[in-house]
Structure formats: structure tokens, C-alpha cells
Amino acid sequence: MADEQPYEKMRRKFQALGETTFNMVSDSMAPLIPPDTLVTAQVVRKKLRRFDIVVFWEKSESQLVCHYVWHINTLPSLADAQIIVTRALQRRADFPLAENQLLGVVVSHRLSKAMRLRITLRNLWAHS
After folding, report:
1. How far apart are CA 85 and CA 67, in angstroms?
2. pLDDT tens, residue by residue, 65-81
3. Rounded distance between C-alpha atoms, residue 20 and residue 48, angstroms
4. What is the distance between the alpha carbons of residues 74 and 97, in angstroms, rounded to a whole number?
5. Distance of CA 35 to the CA centre of its chain
6. Alpha-carbon gap, residue 103 to 96, rounded angstroms
């Protein structure tokens, strides 16, 4: 597919360099990362944790997207493969990613403790 070729080229370059900076087009993490913000991401080198911000290729929109990690499901039936469940700041819908869909982890921006608490409380109240 035409939209996958530039992504695969970028992914190989990113893997070789270990880090890249790109202009965020999506508003998925606004107001923390508004559109047209420079974002730096690194290859994932350690275990992802809740609230880490990750970047991945959204095929339907043909663009890089940032979400935060909500939780990680390990699938023992598939040789401990992981499904990384992410969310955008603006929407609460879960967005599951296979490990191979993940490009990297954002190192230039982090969710503050106050924002993490707000997200946690909002989700607790939504389920009560």
C-alpha cells in the first residue's frame, strides 16, 4: 500500500538511529501535545508503563499519532505477545495496539502527576 511504504522507510530509519523528532499532526494528546508541536521519540528500551506516551502509525488516517498507555494485556496463548491498550487525552475509547504497531515512546513530553491523577479519577467515576 502506498501509505505503508513511507512508514516502513521511516520505521527502519528510526530503528537504526534509535531516536527521531517529528511534527505532531494529530490532536489526540492536546492540550499536552497540540498539533504542529515537535515531538521526540525513542525506540522502546524498557518495559512500558501506564501513562507512558507512545507513538504509532494510524493507517486509516495515514499519520503518526500519540496516545498514552492505559494498560498492557499479555496473551500467554500467543507466546506472551502483548496488546498495548492506549487512549487519547481527548477521548476515552481504548485503542489497542500490537507490539509491532508501536513506533516508539515519546521522551519530549510527559503527563504530569496531576494529569495522571485526573485521568485515573475520571475513569474510576466513569465505571461507578
Report:
1. 9
2. 999 999 999 887 777 78
3. 18
4. 12
5. 15
6. 14
